[in-house]
Protein 1
Amino acid sequence: MQRRIDMTLLNLNYGDTSFPMDIDGQHVKVIASKNIVQTNTELELLKYAIEHPIDSPRLKDFLLPHENVVIIIPDVTRLWQKPSVYLPVLIEEIKSAGLSDQQIHFISALGTHRKQTKKEHRALLGDTLYQRFEIIDHNCKDSSNLSYVGTTSFGTEVFINALALSFDHMILTGGIVFHDLAGFGGGRKVLVPGIAGYKTIMQNHAHSLNPQGSGINPLIGGNQMQTNPFHLDLMEAAAFVKPSFLFNVLLDDDGKIMHAVAGDYVTAHQAGCDFLRTIDLVKIQEKAEVVVASAGGYPKDMNFYQATKALCNAFHACKKGGDIILLACCEEGLGHPEMEKIFKDFETNNEREHHVRKNYTIAKFFAYLTCVWAKEFNLHLVSSLNKAEMKHIGIDVYDNLDDALHVVQQRYDGAYKVFVMPSAASTLPELTGE
């Protein structure tokens, strides 16, 4: 097929590179977050937030010189949230209260993720802070460093990193995005699953399955909080811990910090969620036959487990039975051996669901969820993943975007609509009237 000369190209991130896509034509629409004309620098935004906390005094006004503080930070899979940019602002505020470096501690909220390297610790803190501070990686399976703090009304037994609980104050950091299970990321999620015990994490995440029947719990999903048992369970767990302060950031599609909130861990986070809705929630009047979605490049597509966040958003824009092309390099493979088990060891989704309900883990759930999507949509993956293994669950893998587009285009003779999502892990489509 001959290309037009007057193409309008959009680069879709893939690993540490990108693929160009022609977005000319009335049938193609880009679904992207709202652009903000920012007159303030990232530093100015961060300083304003930390100096104007929501429903809380400033840190410098309530921290005492003899107290010890622990800062809960994300892990390397959340490196795109730019902790190396916002942490120096937080440290400066804490230091102004008279605390020394020795009184400030960092724990990385790994949840169930792998242990990190020193290089990754340096990336999280930045060169300057890395020279001054040590990061301790949370280990959800180290029972000797877990303390029981209570049981939620949902039955979740809450075990939290004992070292984190031993300090006078706990400060939560991270980024606010739509979350396919909890409604929104950030806030309380750095506690559970971030620094929680494995049992706690599994009990909480079990709310992702429908308690009344088969399949996915209909009450969970991005932008869902009010009746979402996953989120409500997290809030009860966080209330046992009572963090002293929160500092969360929001980023735009270009990876720049566009907003920040600080203060009370509940109301400041809620303010951040409200702001996010005005930026990343995109109203659509109809769904498309084809959705082309980029997970956002590295580290958002470092493995398939991380890339499923983009799939969760993409299917909101696609008609049932339509085609979704996901760009996700996945240089670290699937990201968890349990995903491979669900993909390989079962032939039907009923068998997979039965196994997940009896032996729930987060990785198994997302593997099962992927298999459900593969039945509802035609899934195409531009990736380095093994083609034969993904074909087994109904996902076609391609080396480049052009090959995937060529295959999809053969399925449509007449007019069809294409939605392109350059930052699918962040942008949530919402059908008008839903």
Note: The domain at 42-278 is CATH 3.40.50.11440 (Rossmann fold).
Protein 2
Amino acid sequence: MTKVKNFVLHLGHSGQELLSTWVQADLAAAFKAQAQGTDGGTSAALRRLVSKAAIGQAPAAPRGAGTGARVGVRLKAAERAALAEAAQAQGTSSANWLRSLAIVHLARRPQWNAAEIDELRSLFRELRAIGNNVNQIAHALNVAVQTGEYPPHQGTATREAVELLRFEMRRVVAVMSGNFEYWGLPDEDRPTAAPGAVERADAEASTAEAKRKRRPRRRPTRFAESE
């Protein structure tokens, strides 16, 4: 007698029904093996087959779903508990936590949790505000060069903008470093500037400074004491 295996599609969302069927055991094993290499595993593969047969096309992938292959990992009970605790602390699932760990070490890309994303958004808002201030200062300095009239306290405002920029950049570095430290990425494996990037930036800054110094300046207008 040919062995037959029960193959069930579990659906738990409202407005959906449970479908089940019996297939040959070897066919079920082959389908499972094939489905493990797709997003969502066996259930998602069955759902795509049913949808394609009924309406002629597979259902759209859920938002955020990727196209990568599925990887299985075996863990002992204590290890699973530790993984679940770490994932919960990061506000994510165990699967996503393991994926983030792999990406950090293999691709050297930071993986952010919700708190870190909020911190980065705050940083970018501050940097945009500083950028606006620097643009205003640069405009005022350009006007001053043309007219010879320098606004009072302009030097102080420039120094304050520079210090704020340095402070915010240190915050960016702290967030990046903290992310890599959490995931255990060694210092020597962390991303660095492309070869020659620092030297090119220094050369561009030197060229810009040299052009600024060669620019003709107008002397400030002098007024008689009686005016």
Note: Residues 7-12 have pLDDT under 50 and may be disordered.
